[in-house]
Design a protein that fits this description.
single chain, alpha+beta, Conserved Hypothetical Protein Mth637, Chain: A, 5-stranded mixed beta sheet, 1 helix, 19% helix, 42% strand, globular
Protein backbone atom coordinates (compact mmCIF):
# COMPACT_ATOMS: atom_id res chain seq x y z
CA UNK A 1 0.00 0.00 0.00
CA UNK A 2 1.34 3.40 -1.03
CA UNK A 3 1.18 6.09 1.63
CA UNK A 4 1.62 9.76 0.87
CA UNK A 5 2.78 12.16 3.55
CA UNK A 6 2.09 15.87 3.12
CA UNK A 7 4.07 18.54 4.99
CA UNK A 8 4.08 22.31 5.23
CA UNK A 9 7.64 23.58 4.80
CA UNK A 10 9.20 26.90 5.84
CA UNK A 11 12.61 27.88 4.53
CA UNK A 12 15.20 29.88 6.48
CA UNK A 13 18.11 31.21 4.44
CA UNK A 14 21.78 31.22 5.48
CA UNK A 15 21.28 28.35 7.94
CA UNK A 16 21.91 24.60 7.82
CA UNK A 17 19.33 22.47 9.64
CA UNK A 18 16.13 20.42 9.33
CA UNK A 19 13.51 20.54 12.09
CA UNK A 20 10.32 18.44 11.95
CA UNK A 21 7.37 19.07 14.25
CA UNK A 22 4.29 17.05 13.32
CA UNK A 23 3.30 18.04 9.77
CA UNK A 24 5.53 21.16 9.84
CA UNK A 25 9.14 21.19 8.59
CA UNK A 26 11.58 24.08 8.87
CA UNK A 27 14.64 23.80 6.63
CA UNK A 28 17.71 25.99 6.75
CA UNK A 29 19.44 26.29 3.39
CA UNK A 30 22.59 27.93 2.03
CA UNK A 31 21.63 28.10 -1.68
CA UNK A 32 20.29 31.30 -3.19
CA UNK A 33 16.76 31.19 -4.59
CA UNK A 34 17.99 31.33 -8.19
CA UNK A 35 17.20 28.89 -11.00
CA UNK A 36 15.66 26.34 -8.61
CA UNK A 37 18.84 25.79 -6.58
CA UNK A 38 17.10 26.51 -3.27
CA UNK A 39 14.27 24.07 -4.06
CA UNK A 40 16.83 21.40 -4.98
CA UNK A 41 18.59 21.88 -1.64
CA UNK A 42 15.27 21.73 0.25
CA UNK A 43 14.36 18.45 -1.47
CA UNK A 44 17.82 16.93 -0.86
CA UNK A 45 17.81 17.84 2.84
CA UNK A 46 14.30 16.53 3.42
CA UNK A 47 15.13 13.34 1.50
CA UNK A 48 18.23 12.82 3.63
CA UNK A 49 16.26 13.45 6.83
CA UNK A 50 13.50 10.95 5.95
CA UNK A 51 15.95 8.54 4.25
CA UNK A 52 14.10 8.45 0.94
CA UNK A 53 15.20 9.15 -2.63
CA UNK A 54 14.87 12.79 -3.68
CA UNK A 55 12.73 11.61 -6.61
CA UNK A 56 10.03 10.58 -4.09
CA UNK A 57 9.59 14.19 -2.92
CA UNK A 58 7.57 16.75 -4.85
CA UNK A 59 6.72 20.38 -4.17
CA UNK A 60 2.93 20.67 -4.50
CA UNK A 61 2.73 24.43 -4.00
CA UNK A 62 5.03 27.30 -3.16
CA UNK A 63 7.75 26.67 -5.73
CA UNK A 64 8.56 30.40 -5.77
CA UNK A 65 7.88 31.01 -2.07
CA UNK A 66 9.71 30.33 1.20
CA UNK A 67 6.52 28.57 2.36
CA UNK A 68 5.91 25.32 0.51
CA UNK A 69 3.76 22.21 0.64
CA UNK A 70 5.56 18.97 -0.21
CA UNK A 71 4.50 15.38 -0.64
CA UNK A 72 6.65 12.37 0.11
CA UNK A 73 5.65 9.15 -1.66
Amino acid sequence: MLSIMRYSVSVKFHKDFVRVDGDQIVVGIQAKPEKGKANEEVIKKIARHFRVAPSRISICSGVRSPRKVIEIL
